[in-house]
């Protein structure tokens, strides 16, 4: 199975996302985990976890900022969706523009 975790890595959600990525990768050697994020990835997370960067990282805590960030996640995920079985978004706003991709 191939799983993509689309997440920001700051705060409590970031702790959850990093822990989930590590735990999934350790649970099964056949499982392929990809972390999709605009944030820097701390050491120790990428041992068995691939990282796909989200280009845009707007700092605007407003609707335009969320939309730009959702667009960044869409652009990062679109080329790999055929190689992913499941995408897990930790923030529904990030998934907003990715619906209908497949």
Q: What's the number of domains?
A: 1
Please describe the biggest sheet, giving its number of strands, its sense, and whether it closes into a barrel.
4 strands, parallel
Rough outline: globular
- The string of secondary-structure elements, in order, is EHEEHEH
Instruction: Compute the CA-based radius of gyration.
Output: 13 Å
CATH architecture: 3-Layer(aba) Sandwich
Q: DSSP helix count?
A: 3
- Within CATH, the superfamily carries the name Glycogen Phosphorylase B
Strand content: 15-25%
Mean pLDDT: 84
CATH class equals Alpha Beta
The poorly predicted ranges are none
CATH topology: Rossmann fold
**Structural class category:** alpha/beta
Strand numbers in spatial order across the main sheet = 3-2-1-4
Cα distance, first to last residue?
16 Å
Q: What is the percent of helical residues? A: 25-40%
Strand segment count: 4
Give an overview of the whole structure.
With 102 residues, the chain is an alpha/beta fold. It has one domain: Rossmann fold. The chain is 35% helix and 20% strand. The protein has three helices and four strands, in the order βαββαβα. It has a four-stranded parallel β-sheet, sandwiched between helices. Helix 1 links the parallel strand 1 and strand 2. It is globular.
List the helices and strands and how they pair.
Blueprint: E1 2-6, H1 11-27, E2 32-37, E3 49-53, H2 63-77, E4 86-89, H3 92-95
Parallel strand pairs: 1-2, 1-4, 2-3
Question: What attributes characterize this protein structure?
Answer:
alpha/beta, Rossmann fold, four-stranded parallel sheet, 4 strands, 20% strand, globular
